[in-house]
Each structure stands twice: as structure tokens, then as C-alpha cells.
């Protein structure tokens, strides 16, 4: 059967609500990216120090304190931006003891170096010059628990200098998505581009499991399939009513 022909009226409304929620999650990252782009002198790129970026700490801490879904937030520099080290993080985390700066091994040449340049969130934002998101995954090096990491590129005179990023609690995201999925007349699921389930309004799918075939490649098996906001790579799919 055709997914488009049998798409219920509620489907587009829920898809829009899901996208609105994700855009709201991205607002603090976009604001930090804009402030970084306006703060960094193009002539200083390559010679920046931690002291140069210190005035941004109150904004980072304030945004983290005000965003209940965030467990980490900050700036990750690209290579050739900082004076003393290619790898640099101005990143704060929310812990039971309060907000603290993330302190990882960023020593060049060290085999234990936290190589974030190769992560999907950083490399994706750099390659696309657009927001990127990765996960959920267990961030053993940073948060040390399950997170979604989102990133917005920071551009200074069109040069990529890093990302404004956030580690997001996937359980809170799942709860928000499930609340909206309940507005659909049947079983529905949100999956990412590697087929992993992010949220569902039915026990038929559990978060973290993978659907056998991505809904975008098997539209005939679903009542409706819709791509969510492009930067996520996420998809909303509604099962046929006969399977609900």
C-alpha cells in the first residue's frame, strides 16, 4: 500500500511538533556559535588562548543550567585554531556536585588523546557546515554515560573554527518524543539513520534496538513515513492500522 495515500491527518502535525522540539533543543547551540563567531577575531585564529575564550564561560554555564535536557555544553576547537594545542575543549558538564569543566587528555601525540576530530558529531558539522547529531552512545571518554551529542559549526569569515556542542540526555529526549507520538492513531517509532530506535509509543520497539529495515527503504510496510529535520537524519514511521 502507499504510505502517502493512507497517511492520517495527525501524522504531519506530529512530525511538525517533533521538528519544533528538536529546533528548540538546538537554540542554545546556535546562540553560542553566533557569539563565538562574533567574539573571535579572524586575525587571531591560530593564536587563541584559553584566556581569550574565558569571557564565554558564564554564557556556557548559564545555558547548561537552564537546559534540563543538557548534561554537557561548550566549544570544541578545530585544528589550527588555538595557539598551544590543536585539540581544545571549553566544555562544562552538569554533575551531582554542580557544574564542572570537562578535563580530558588533549595532549598531542599521546596514545590516550581524546580524538574528537573523528567523531560523527564534530566531523559531520565540519563536513556539512550544518548541525549534526550522533547517538545515543556511551561517551566513555567524556560524560561516561549514554548521551546524544549535537553540534553546530562555528564559522569565522567562512572558516570552520570548531563547534558549539551539547551532550543531551537521551532518556529525556525519548520522553518528550513519546509524549508527541501518543498523538498518532497507531504504533509509531522514531529511528536514526543506522536504524536504531530513539522512541516509540508502543512496547513493540525498545529504545536502542534496531529495526530490521530502515523505514525509508521499506515504505510499503508502513502506513506513513516522514523524514524529520534534515540535520538529525531521524525518521518517523507509523505502522499500518492492521498491525496496531
What topology does this entry show?
Blueprint: H1 9-39, H2 50-53, H3 57-66, E1 70-77, E2 89-95, E3 98-101, H4 120-128, E4 132-138, E5 146-156, E6 159-168, H5 170-181, E7 188-191, E8 197-200, E9 224-227, E10 235-238
Antiparallel strand pairs: 1-2, 1-6, 2-3, 4-5, 5-6, 7-8, 7-10, 9-10
Helix pairs in contact: 1-5
Pfam family, one: MCP-like_PDC_1
Protein name: Cache domain-containing protein
Explained architecture:
With 244 residues, this protein is an alpha+beta fold. It has 2 domains: 9-20 and 172-239; 25-169, PAS domain (Beta-Lactamase), CATH 3.30.450. The protein has 5 helices and 10 strands. It has helices at 9-39, 50-53, 57-66, 120-128, 170-181, and strands at residues 70-77, 89-95, 98-101, 132-138, 146-156, 159-168, 188-191, 197-200, 224-227, 235-238. Strands 3-2-1-6-5-4 form a 6-stranded antiparallel beta sheet, sandwiched between helices. The protein starts with 8 loop residues before the first helix and ends in a 6-residue tail after the last strand.
Overall pLDDT: 92
CATH architecture type of the largest domain: 2-Layer Sandwich
Largest sheet report: 6 strands, antiparallel
Strands ordered across the widest β-sheet: 3-2-1-6-5-4
Helix content: 25-40%
Structural class: alpha+beta
Strand residues, percent: 25-35%
Number of helices: 5
Number of domains: 2
What is the H/E order? HHHEEEHEEEHEEEE
Low-confidence stretches: 1-5
- Total strands: the figure is 10
The radius of gyration computed from the alpha-carbon positions, rounded to a whole number of angstroms, is 20 Å
CATH class group of the largest domain:
Alpha Beta
Q: How far apart are the termini?
A: 16 Å
At the fourth level of CATH, the homologous superfamily of the largest domain is PAS domain
Large-scale geometry: elongated
Pfam families: MCP-like_PDC_1 (PF22673)
Protein name: Cache domain-containing protein
Amino acid at each position: 500500500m502507499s504510505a502517502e495515500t493512507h497517511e492520517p491527518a495527525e501524522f504531519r502535525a506530529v512530525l511538525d511538533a517533533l521538528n519544533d522540539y528538536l529546533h528548540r533543543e538546538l537554540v542554545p547551540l546556535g546562540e553560542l556559535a553566533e557569539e563565538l563567531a562574533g567574539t573571535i577575531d579572524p586575525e587571531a585564529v591560530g593564536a587563541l588562548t584559553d584566556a581569550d575564550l574565558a569571557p564565554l564561560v558564564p554564557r556556557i554555564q548559564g545555558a547548561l543550567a537552564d537546559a534540563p535536557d543538557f548534561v554537557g555544553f561548550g566549544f570544541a576547537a578545530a585544528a589550527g585554531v588555538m595557539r598551544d594545542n590543536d585539540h581544545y575543549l571549553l566544555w562544562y558538564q552538569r554533575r551531582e556536585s554542580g557544574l564542572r569543566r570537562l578535563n580530558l587528555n588533549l595532549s598531542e601525540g599521546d596514545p590516550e588523546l581524546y580524538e574528537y576530530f573523528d567523531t560523527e558529531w564534530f566531523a559531520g558539522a565540519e563536513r556539512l557546515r550544518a548541525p549534526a547529531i550522533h547517538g545515543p552512545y556511551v561517551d566513555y571518554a567524556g560524560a561516561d554515560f549514554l548521551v546524544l551529542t549535537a553540534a553546530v559549526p562555528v564559522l569565522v569569515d567562512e572558516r570552520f573554527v570548531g563547534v558549539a556542542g551539547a551532550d543531551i540526555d537521551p532518556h529525556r529526549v525519548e520522553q518528550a518524543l513519546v509524549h508527541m507520538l501518543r498523538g498518532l492513531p497507531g504504533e509509531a517509532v522514531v529511528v536514526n539513520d543506522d536504524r536504531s530506535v530513539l522512541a516509540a509509543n508502543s512496547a513493540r520497539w525498545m529504545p536502542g534496538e534496531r529495526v530490521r529495515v530502515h523505514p525509508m527503504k521499506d515504505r510499503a510496510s508502513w502506513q506513513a513515513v516522514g523524514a524529520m529535520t534534515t540535520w538529525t537524519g531521524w525518521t518517523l514511521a507509523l505502522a499500518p492500522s492492521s498491525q496496531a
